[in-house]
Every structure is written in structure tokens, then in C-alpha cells.
Specification:
With 98 residues, the chain is α+β, with helices and mostly antiparallel strands. It has helices spanning 17-27, 61-65, 76-84; strands at 3-8, 37-42, 47-53, 71-75, 90-92, 95-96. It has a single domain (3-96), classed as 2-Layer Sandwich (Alpha-Beta Plaits), CATH 3.30.70. It contains three helices and six strands; from the N terminus they run βαββαβαββ. The mean pLDDT is 84.
Amino acid sequence: MDKILTVDVDKCTGCRVCELVCSMTKLGEFNPLKAHIKVMKNSEMDLNMVSLGTGCDFCGECIEWCMPQAIAFVDFDAAVLKWKGVKVGTLPAPTYGS
């Protein structure tokens, strides 16, 4: 994996536009269930968590359309540096199997 998705949970509104953009870009239909990116609401912690499917090809459309600029692709070295100086709420996104 060349890139890692990072998420600023303080900025993510949970709008799920990234899911719609992904499904439209990859499949030609607005169907969030088929998107390679997922936004999950954690009610207990009151935050939105974003994860990537293994089918993601890092096209960047989801990032381009993220209005609050909550998600970004970074290379591994940048992710490590981000982890070292991370503020609470900025995390690398987990991946899930497709």
C-alpha cells in the first residue's frame, strides 16, 4: 500500500458525500453500499470514523469532494510523522475487506 487515508474526526461531519462520489466514480451509480470508503458514526464517542475497502485504488475523488477537508491520502512516512505528533482525533483510517 503506497498511501494511507488519514481522517480528522474533528472536521468530519458524517455527510457521506465521499461514499456517493466513490460509488459514482467507480460504478457509475450513486450507491454508498458499493463504495470503497465507508463513514461510520460512533454514537458513544460522538465521532465519525472513516474506513477504506481493499478495492480502493486511491483515485482521490473522495478527498476532492470532502467539503470540510477531513480526509487526506498521505504516504507511509508522512503517516508515521503524523502519528508521532498526532492530536487526539486525527487518525489513520482503518481498512476493511471487500
